[in-house]
Design brief:
With about 200 residues, the chain is an alpha+beta fold. The chain has seven helices and six strands; from the N terminus they run βααβααααββαββ. The relative contact order is 0.14. The mean pLDDT is about 90.
Length: about 200
């Protein structure tokens, strides 16, 4: 289908191979195999969005057994960015994020999301010095907290702390998030004594 929503292999690799792979139980691997993701075989170039969502549903309780669904999906979103950071493209992208700061990072979220799929877009509206709202066309999960974790971990790479991301609207596909953060304190530069 020409308009089918697809999640690219690099996203599947980032989360399920690089980040979660070494930590998945044999039961989680069996569940993933049952829904079409056999981690012992090469990845396909892309997976339908609904299948990606099925992968998330299969591993969330295994990876975060004591967490609420919201907390589990938040954790999966964080792990996604952590796995992405382990790839060559992810390292380059996250190095750029470190230089852009929080505002520039949020402006690039749409570009970053589209690197992992063929359908997403985002719009940012700055509300204040350390506050913004972000609308995302598709949160790529059954739960908006996956995107919350993705956004928090991405912002963390821009050098901010005390990050709070919460969904303020969710229609089952698109969501609007409110983000707040504090700038990390800068370490003073101490000149070396010459002499």
């Amino acid at each position: 289908m020409p308009n089918e929503k697809l999640v690219f292999a690099q996203s599947v690799e980032a989360l399920f191979v690089r980040s979660l792979g070494p930590h998945l139980t044999s039961e989680a691997r069996r569940l993933l195999r049952g829904v079409g993701l056999d981690l012992s075989e090469p990845l396909r170039p892309a997976y339908p969005l609904e299948q990606w969502r099925t992968f998330l549903r299969a591993v969330a309780p295994d990876v975060f057994p004591k967490a609420s669904p919201d907390a589990a999906y938040f954790g999966l979103g964080e792990r996604y960015v952590q796995g992405y950071r382990q790839s060559a493209v992810g390292r380059a992208s996250m190095a750029l994020v470190a230089h852009l700061g929080p505002r520039g990072t949020l402006e690039r979220v749409s570009h970053g999301a589209r690197a992992g799929n063929n359908f997403n877009e985002a719009r940012v509206k700055e509300l204040g010095n350390r506050e913004a709202t972000l609308w995302m066309k598709d949160v790529t999960a059954d739960n908006p907290f996956f995107a919350c974790g993705f956004l928090a971990e991405t912002l963390r790479g821009s050098g901010v702390v005390d990050i709070h991301v919460e969904p303020v609207a969710f229609d089952g596909t698109a969501a609007t998030f409110r983000l707040t953060w504090e700038l990390a304190p800068r370490r003073p530069v101490v000149a070396a004594a010459v002499g």
